[in-house]
Design brief:
Elements (H helix, E strand, L loop, with lengths): L4 H34 L1 H10 L2 H16 L8 H20 L1 H19 L6 H11 L4 H16 L4 H23 L10
Helix pairs in contact: 1-2, 2-3, 3-6, 4-5, 4-8, 5-7, 5-8, 6-7, 7-8
Length: 189
Amino acid sequence: MESWMIPAAGSMLVLLACALLGWTLYRRHRSRALRNHFGPEYDASILKMGSRSRAESDLKGRLQRMRTLEIRLLSGQEVDRFLETWRGIQRLFMDSPIAAVAEAELFVKEVMRTRGYPMGDFDRRAADISVDHPEVVSRYRSARAIALQSKTGPASTEELRQAMVHYRALVESLLESSENLVTEPVPTH
């Protein structure tokens, strides 16, 4: 071996170690950022996908997809109208829990559609909503499961009540970001 080869090989090893360290730090940073953004949905995705890398790829895909959509805030009038409708659905629960849960499912779709979320299949809607509202997406899935169960078989009043609680959390989250919408320009002086 030539004497100049030893320092060159050492430099290559140092360079390779630095590249590996950089890649490892980048992946940790990306994982931490995704975990912070998605919260419990991050862990749920890992369980569903079977691996961290597939789950992170899926979550990054959700973020990229949502960046292409035009999700909008609701006007104050729209928020008021939706809140009044939601109150009516909640009152319906007293007389007809099954009908109220079915109405709640349709209502959530209407709010999402109005905000600009695509209305694909349920799994796509849940994935889309997880980007902006990761804290309630698991509740949305639970509510939907109870709503489906009530259509095909008996669901207890307590299960139906729980579905309404889950839907309410999602409705509040969907309307919350629009609630403080400034409808008039704010003076700058």
